Amino acid sequence: MANYTDRKEYIGKLLSYKDKDLIKVVSGLRRSGKSTLLELYREKLLNLGIGEKQIHFYNFELPENFIGKTWDDIYFGIKGKLLTDKPNYIFLDEVQNIPLFEKLVDGLFASKNVDVYITGSNAFLLSSELATLLSGRYIDISILPFSFNEYLIARGIDVNNKYLNYEPLFFDYANETSLPKAVSLRDEGYDKIHEYLEAIYKTIIDKDITQRHKINDKRAFENIVKFVASNIGNALSPNNISNTLKQDGQSIHHATVEKYLEYLVQSFVFYKVNRFDLKGRKQLATQEKYYLVDTGLLNVLTGKERTTDRGHILENIVYLELLRRGNKIWTGTSRNSEVDFVCKTKTGDVEYYQVAWQIDNEKTKEREFGALEKIKDNYPKFLLTTDGFTQNRSGIKHLNVFYWLLAT
Q1: pLDDT tens across 177-197, in order?
Q2: How far is residue 406 from each of residues 302, 343, 355, measured CA to CA in Å?
Q3: Are 141 and 25 in contact (CB under 8 A)?
Q4: What is the pLDDT of residue 3?
Q5: What pLDDT is attached to residue 123?
Q6: What is the 3-state secondary structure (H, E, C) of the chain?
Q7: Which pLDDT does position 199 carry in this prediction?
Q8: Domain extent listing, the chain
Q9: Boundaries of each AAA domain copy (predicted)?
Q10: d(CA 369, CA 394)
Q11: Taking the model in full, what pTM does it have?
């Protein structure tokens, strides 16, 4: 089984910014393939005729590369190896492990003949001094785990086979994992995947969240994670989470809930989606929805009580795919209806998406089409379901979700 696909969208993005006067920041969940992406990009540069000596790769997950060194030790160490007469490509992997890393990045960026690429597993990278320091001088390339298409390729499955039964493969994808390394563990059995996911989650919680933000009440934090994971696709607010936990005999102030949610989003465990008022055409400040970076993590977060229904899991996967395709995303709401996703595309157009597992009766059909029919503008509207037989209605395109996911 392949360890990774070529991740061509991300490579394409990096190539389009090559030699541009911008720092390339590759961010995303731990183990979502950031280091592999840099390795693939490095291969690409070598194939383009760039010499080995022009490429400088530093992995700051390895303690020997930073322990006992200050940012300026590292800076002068790198500077000493640069070629003066040719462009240099510098890769700093997991750079947030270096205290005052923003000074290192800024110093290298200001140097002549230097193209800087950095990765980090925490949005802290961009919400910190770095963003202020580099305002307008960086581009963030946010990397997600495998899409359904990449997952099938990694498993050696021919995605062009018209007669493939996608449903069981989709269940594997949704129930097991979409994280590149974990997919390569399939041959060793599901237990290995589960152990791997548990280890990643534990590292994120311990290293990126509880230690960094000095959270003492780990139990309260875990309960919030579980609660949000069990409510994928439901509108939530710090207040209603706090009240629900109170009924369960746990007292967590809504301001604390809000902070914890922020940390989880910053570590790319959850993605937060704001509501959009369809009538007033404006973003609303309450009742956001949260989606999980990898639905396989539900097995770790909610354990045996994995109760999330398949409709919400499908919605989660569609959300991530819309994100991969470069959309800005909201959930749409008006007085008497709701639409799953309102998207602003890369070209600035608007699209609406409704997601349902299947339309198996008249009531479901009316509800799903009806939500889109109530929107009285002429922007494209899509209904995505697993149905083999699809039927358009009132200008709404009804598509099979598996084909839609594979239409890259």
Answers
A1: 999 999 999 999 999 999 999
A2: 29, 19, 16
A3: yes
A4: 44
A5: 64
A6: CCCCCCCHHHHHHHHHCCCCCCEEEEECCCCCCHHHHHHHHHHHHHHCCCCHHHEEEEECCCHHHCCCCCHHHHHHHHHCCCCCCCCEEEEEECHHHCCCHHHHHHHHHHCCCEEEEEEECCCHHHHCHHHHHCCCCEEEEECCCCCHHHHHHHCCCCCCCCCCCHHHHHHHHHHCCCCHHHHCCHHHCHHHHHHHHHHHHHHHHHHHHHHCCCCCCHHHHHHHHHHHHCCCCCCECHHHHHHHHHHCCCCCCHHHHHHHHHHHHHCCCEEEEEEEECCCCEEEEEEEEEEECCHHHHHHHCHHHCCCCHHHHHHHHHHHHHHHCCCEEEEEEECCEEEEEEEECCCCCEEEEEECCCCCCHHHHHHHHHHHHCCCCCCCEEEEECCCCCCCECCEEEEEHHHHHHCC
A7: 95
A8: 8-142, 149-406
A9: 23-152
A10: 9
A11: 0.92
Q: Give me the mean pLDDT over the 200-217 stretch.
A: 88
Total residues found in the chain within this entry: 408
- The type of residue at 189 is G
Core vs surface per residue 234-258: b (16+ CB within 10 A) or e: ebbbbebbbeebeeeeeebeeebbe
